[in-house]
Amino acid sequence: MTQQLNSQVFAYAKQLADSAFKAQSVAFKGLEQVAELQIRALEKQSEAAADFFSGALETRDIDGFRVLWEKAAAAGRENAERAVSVTQEIIAVTQKTAESLSALVQEQQLAANDAVAAPVAAVKKAAAAASSK
């Protein structure tokens, strides 16, 4: 009886460790995607800021300042649009990661239910066989 219990506990612990490893892998993949999105957005903003500052340094007259003002307004609008776009992509990645983790939890629950139900069914079957003799 002890051997059977030890076997069941070991199987459940192995299953739990496997599920934790899968969950960690899914979470790290999601974090990697979010970090990649943020780094790309930062690169684009840095490029836009560098272009703007180089234009500002080359401005010498009032017409140049007018053009610079229009560029600043356009850059601000583009940065806002980019921020909204990146935020939407991050939300999509986060949602996909949460769905994957939820599927793993449901899989774990089903496996745990099966692990509990199998020994109970075996005991019931053995009891039914013993009472019919």
Give a written overview of the molecule.
Residues 8-108 form the Phasin domain. Pfam families: Phasin_2 (PF09361). With 133 residues, this protein is mainly alpha-helical. It has one domain (6-125). Helix content is 96%, strand content 0%. The protein has helices at residues 2-58, 62-132. Helix 1 (2-58) runs antiparallel to helix 2. The longest helix has 71 residues, at 62-132. 0% of the residues are buried. The model has no long low-confidence stretch (mean pLDDT 86).
In short:
The protein has 133 residues and is mostly helical. Helix content is 96%, strand content 0%. This is Phasin family protein.
Question: How many β-strand stretches?
Answer: 0
**Straight-line distance between termini:** 23 Å
The biggest beta sheet reads: none
Mean pLDDT comes to 86
* Oligomeric state of the chains present here: single chain
Spell the H/E element sequence. Answer: HH
Derived structural class? mainly alpha
The dominant shape is rod-shaped
Point out poorly predicted stretches: none
Domain count: 1
**What percentage of amino acids are in beta strands?**
under 5%
Protein name: Phasin family protein
Domain Phasin: 8-108
InterPro entries: Phasin
Pfam family, one: Phasin_2
Write the layout of secondary structure elements.
Layout: H1 2-58, H2 62-132
Helix pairs in contact: 1-2
Which tags fit this structure?
mainly alpha; 133 residues; 0% strand; Phasin family protein; Phasin; 96% helix
